Amino acid sequence: MSEREVAVTGIGMVTPAGLGREATWDGLCAGEGLGAFDEDLAGLPVDFSCRVPGFDGNALLGRRITWRNDRFIHLAMVAAREAVADAALDPAVWDAPRVAIVIGTASNGGDRWPQEYRNLDEGRVEAISPTALLRSLPNMVAGEVSKDLRALGPCLTTSTACASGATAVGTARDLLRAGACDIAIAGGTDSARVPMGSAAFYRMQALSRRCHDPAGASRPFDADRDGFVLSEGAAMLILERPLHARARGARVRGYLSGYGASSDGYHATRPDPEGAGARRAVEAALADARAELAEVHHVNAHGTSTPLNDDVEAAMLSAVFRTPPPVTSLKGVIGHSLGAAGAVDAACTVLSLERQLIPPTANLDRLDDGMDLDVVTKIARRHRMEGALSNSFGFGGQNAVLFFRAA
User: Fold this and answer.
1) Which terminus of the chain is more solvent-facing, meaning fewer CB atoms within 10 Å of its CB: N or C?
2) Does residue 336 carry a catalytic annotation?
3) What are the two backbone dihedrals, phi and then psi, of residue 265, each rounded to the nearest 5 degrees?
4) HSE of 94, CA atoms in CB hemisphere, 13 A
5) CB 195, CB 40: distance < 8 Å
6) For residue range 81-100, what is the model confidence (pLDDT) as tens digits?
């Protein structure tokens, strides 16, 4: 461990695999796809999604908080509270101006906008909620977590499409390295499984259309994949300057050693077919960590289950590593939570290193022709690991890659 690295001392997660870090981990290791009919999407061409089971924001946070915020903020607040508790931090006594918040989101809110538009269309302006804008503005998620936890340092929101959560973690690392804070709460959140989200992604031909088999619809790297499955969730990591973590005797789950970002500069939705941007991000993360390729023992892939993304990522990994280390994509189980995905992947990469266990990629029955990858399938795999990459690639050609080392 060097002072260039930052310590991961806490993790909180809310995903379709479970409400909480351990429930999520157990669900991911079970390796079963969680796509299911979604009554909120009934009547649409794609009427299924992956939804967080049993999530009741009112019960978890209280109506005083939930009435003024959309679901993506509720998810983030619950994940942040768990991460803080996991790190054994007490907001009542910490040095609040030295605690930063950096949270990524791609689509942010939207669950209550249909009613507000109906009010507007019907000329009932006075019926529009005074919180209509506030509850769905992207920056409000960081602001609400800041208020809830009394964290008064830098408070930022990142938005790099499906790389937003990973970008947030990398940005928080930069704040810590720069000495702008001692602790950072960093992660991502999104809840895009709303009618407009499903309809718009359907029209883009990005979603799987397996309405007859929603549990088997998300199938990263599989020859029969046909698109991603809309999901929701949030994940938060507590990052600390190593000196600060040591001084308070914190338990360290892992170290964030490297961060690389790049842009394809190619197309709004399609990745660069050569994978050049993704490769630059991988190489930048390793250079930042001062790590050799041989130190990468696992890759948590972006692996969306879309034909183009999986093709390009697989080819890029083969080109970088020649013989890639074991690969997994969590999206086979929990679908694609957009801005939250990179943070969920990062959190689970840390847990994989800590537990020396790689969750399987669900629904991978036949690796697509031409892919030369060792993808973990069917059951979780025990594997000796000291370093691992977490890949995140977003619309607009925005790439973010994180490199973690075991504690």
Assistant:
1) N
2) yes
3) 60, 40
4) 25
5) yes
6) 999 999 999 999 999 999 99
Q: Read off the tokens for 191.
A: 């809840």
Q: Is the pLDDT of residue 206 over 60?
A: yes
What are the tokens at 315? 């080819």
Choose, from 74, 297, 298, 336, the residue flagged as catalytic.
Answer: 336
H helical segments located in 297-389: 307-321, 331-334, 341-355
d(CA 104, CA 164): 5
Q: In this structure, are residues 405 and 255 in contact, taking their beta carbons and an 8 Å threshold?
A: yes
Active-site residue, selected from the candidate residues 155, 162, 181, 348: 162
Does this model's pTM top 0.70? My answer is yes
Q: CA–CA separation, 99 vs 35, rounded Å?
A: 37
C-beta separation of 371 from 319 below 8 A: no
d(CA 141, CA 366): 40
Q: Return the structure tokens found at 149.
A: 């936890």
DSSP sequence for 260-286: EEEE--S-SSSPPTT-HHHHHHHHHHH
